[in-house]
């Protein structure tokens, strides 16, 4: 008995020691750095078509995090809707300022960051999402827009704020949260006329609806999104600007708890104007005011085609537990 107790004591001691060692390691190491990625991209040609598409995509995919709504410039700010468990994280200045923005970054460095989440200095930009499945053409369009003459991206001398990650965020980046690898082959988007395939691309690659609309950010699968827990069934607990919980909704084709009973016209209204049969849609659901008809049609066709999940979300009467 004594001996058994001593062994248990020894084991507990070892676990505590290992835990303490890990804590010291994580605190000292902080957010890890990696070798900066070198994707095989030449300088990106800024055609008018790319700049126009890039403006729309940047607003939809980067705007909520990087756009300063007062100055209407992409100069960055505190992410107020990030869970306080992660500490304080600030998006960066991505205007053309050479010292404080991305004026000194090459196209290759920008594409490398967008694909993997790793910056030109090797530092992992952890809360910045990686756009692993976005098409090469969409990525090029975003870069073309960031380099354009638009007033939103002209040099702004606001310095990017340094990060104040919590111990939890540091621990996660030293264990499970990792950069995504560079794509091994060219990434092409299906033609808009192939509605279901194009709709999938919009959901997983271009707008990444699945990230918010599956069960939890922590169980999302960035390279094989369909393997994310509760794919598109809603229930992810997000925060609004006041720090209150807003639960994402089930957007599979289930007629009772999803959007199986919606018409395509209702769906288009919800995405472009934020109005639904259940009332207005609140932040952080983005307003996709510039989606074109082919995108609405494809998104709707694809969402009706994915496996239907039964998952009651607040608009169906579920109460958001604290
Ligand atoms: C969920 C919020 C979020 C979204 C969406 C987002 N970013 Fe970021 N981004 C961040 C944060 C936070 C950082 C700073 C991270 C750090 O310093 O660790 C960042 C950093 C960057 C940087 C690095 C700048 C520097 O000086 O280090 C670039 C470039 C960038 N983002 C571009 C974009 C583009 C382009 C998009 C859209 C395609 C985008 N981001 C979407 C949050 C976001
Ligand atoms: C940043 C997170 C986020 C992203 C990205 C996002 N959504 Fe949402 N969405 C939400 C939240 C949160 C709600 C619920 C808002 C509320 O409660 O007012 C919502 C609501 C909806 C609804 C209303 C469903 C209902 O039953 O009332 C639809 C439809 C929808 N989103 C579709 C989409 C599509 C399609 C995309 C991609 C093009 C998308 N969302 C991207 C967070 C997001």
Automatic annotation (TrEMBL):
Domain Cytochrome c: 49-150, 194-307
InterPro entries assigned to the protein according to its UniProt record, in alphabetical order: Cyt_c-like_dom, Cyt_c-like_dom_sf, Cytochrome_c-type_DH
Highest taxon in the source lineage: Bacteria
Transmembrane spans: none
Keywords attached to this entry: Heme, Iron, Metal-binding
Pfam families for the chain: Cytochrom_C, Cytochrome_CBB3
The keyword Metal-binding is assigned to this record: yes
Keyword Metal-binding set for record: yes
Name of the molecule in the record: C-type cytochrome
């Amino acid at each position: 008995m004594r001996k058994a107790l001593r062994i248990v004591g020894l084991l507990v001691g070892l676990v505590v020691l290992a835990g303490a060692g890990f804590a010291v390691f994580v605190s000292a190491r902080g957010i890890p750095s990696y070798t900066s990625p070198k994707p095989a991209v030449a300088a990106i040609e800024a055609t008018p078509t790319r700049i126009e598409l890039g403006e729309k995509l940047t607003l939809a995919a980067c705007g909520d995090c990087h756009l300063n709504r007062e100055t209407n410039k992409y100069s960055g700010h505190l992410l107020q809707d990030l869970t306080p468990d992660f500490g304080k994280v600030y998006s960066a200045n991505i205007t053309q300022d050479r010292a404080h923005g991305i004026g000194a970054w090459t196209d290759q460095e920008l594409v490398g960051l967008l694909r993997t989440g790793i910056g030109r200095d090797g530092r992992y930009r952890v809360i910045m999402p990686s756009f692993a499945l976005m098409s090469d053409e969409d990525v090029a369009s975003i870069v073309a827009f960031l380099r354009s003459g638009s007033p939103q991206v002209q040099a702004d001398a606001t310095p990017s704020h340094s990060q104040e990650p919590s111990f939890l965020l540091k621990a996660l980046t030293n264990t499970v949260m990792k950069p995504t690898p560079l794509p091994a082959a060219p990434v092409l988007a299906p033609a808009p006329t192939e509605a279901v395939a194009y709709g999938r691309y919009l959901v997983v690659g271009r707008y990444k609806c699945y990230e918010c609309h599956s069960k939890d950010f922590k169980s999302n699968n960035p390279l094989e999104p369909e393997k994310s827990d509760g794919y598109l069934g809603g229930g992810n607990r997000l925060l609004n600007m006041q720090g209150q919980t807003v639960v994402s909704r089930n957007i599979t084709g289930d007629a009772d708890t999803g959007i199986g009973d919606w018409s395509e016209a209702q769906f288009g209204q919800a995405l472009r104007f934020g109005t639904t049969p259940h009332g207005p849609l609140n932040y952080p659901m983005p307003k996709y005011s510039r989606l074109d008809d082919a995108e609405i049609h494809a998104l709707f066709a694809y969402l009706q085609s994915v496996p239907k999940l039964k998952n009651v979300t607040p608009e169906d009467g579920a109460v958001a537990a604290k």
